[in-house]
Amino acid sequence: MGAGHAHKLYRHGHSPVHALPPHTKLAAVFAFVLVVVSTPREAMWAFALYAALLATVAYAARVPPGFLLKRLLIEVPFVAFAVLMPFVAQGERVDVLGLSLSVNGLWGAWNVLAKGTLGVAASVLLASTTELRELLLGLQRLKLPPLLVQIASFMIRYGDVIADEMRRMRIARESRGFEARGVRSWGVLAKSAGALFIRSYERGERVHLAMVSRGYAGSMPVIDEVTASRAQWSYALALPFAALLVCVLGWTL
User: Fold this and answer.
1) Is a pLDDT exceeding 60 seen at residue 184?
2) For this UniProt entry, which segments traverse the membrane (predicted)?
3) What's the rounded Cα separation, in Å, for the pair 37 and 108?
4) Is the distance from CB of 72 to CB of 9 less than 8 angstroms?
5) Residue 119 to residue 4: CA distance in whole angstroms
6) pLDDT confidence of 221, banded at 50, 70, 90?
7) pLDDT in tens, 201-218
8) Rounded to a whole number, what is the distance in angstroms from the first to the last CA of the chain?
9) CB 138 within 8 A of CB 89
């Protein structure tokens, strides 16, 4: 998979969670999210227990609350959508602080907020304790289609190349006195976007030709063989199994 690739969500550490093989963490997070989504929305106490489980994982991973909360801001658009649901949904109405709100809309908003927030938090914890290269190795270990893994790998690496090219083009424009102000600047920005597309396409062709000349035949060599012991699987799956117990109680109580 090539050299290591750090990302902004990753927080370097030496905790037990960091040390787990990536495919065990991927499987645990996927199973945890499935359990959370399967929980009845009326069991509000269950979601509090899920949050407590994630807080325990964050403590074990030594991820500060501020670090986690700051990255949860990515779900703000979904929060805005959920806030609107009680106003636009149909069905029985109830007055809250002088506002007529839909009961189904309130439950729907709670359902989206609770399950969405827990899912995003679990994903952030995964990204905070696993490097991108390890995530790709974990996907490969979980037998995902090799072509999808390769596309994800190239996308991650080439995204930084394009971002760096955009930065150089912006510096070049500003060094020539250009400032984006109003509609008149759109023409210059459009030409820059076109030039960026052409440069990226040409660079992609050169990279592909270089790979083919070095023997690339549609599959990437596996440099590191990632394995996990039974104890590591048990440690990783403790989160979804505990969540599953809460979910069962939520359906039966």
Assistant:
1) yes
2) 43-60, 72-89, 109-127, 233-252
3) 13
4) no
5) 26
6) low
7) 888 888 888 888 888 777
8) 48
9) no
Q: Which amino acid is at 78?
A: F
Structure tokens, 54: 């994630």
pLDDT exceeds cutoff 60 at 6: no
Give the 3-state secondary structure of 189-228: HHHHHHHHHHHHHHHHHHHHHHHHHCCCCCCCCCCCCCCC
Q: What percentage of residues in the chain have a pLDDT greater than 70?
A: 94
Maximum distance among all alpha carbons in the chain? 71
Model pTM? Answer: 0.81
Listed residue (109, 95, 107, 141) closest to 236, CA to CA:
141
Report how far Cα 23 is from the mean position of its chain's Cα atoms.
15
What are the angstrom distances between the C-alpha of 8 and each of 127, 163, 174?
A: 9, 14, 26
**Mutual angle of helices 44-60 and 230-252, in 10-degree steps:** 160
Q: Which string of DSSP letters, residue by residue, matches the chain?
A: --S----TT-----SHHHHS-HHHHHHHHHHHHHHHHHS-TT-HHHHHHHHHHHHHHHHHTT--HHHHHHHGGGGHHHHHHHHHHHHH--S-EEEETTEEEEHHHHHHHHHHHHHHHHHHHHHHHHHHHS-HHHHHHHHHHTT--HHHHHHHHHHHHHHHHHHHHHHHHHHHHHHTT----SGGGHHHHHHHHHHHHHHHHHHHHHHHHHHHHTT--S-----S-----HHHHHHHHHHHHHHHHHHHHHHH-
Q: Are 3 and 89 in contact (CB under 8 A)?
A: no
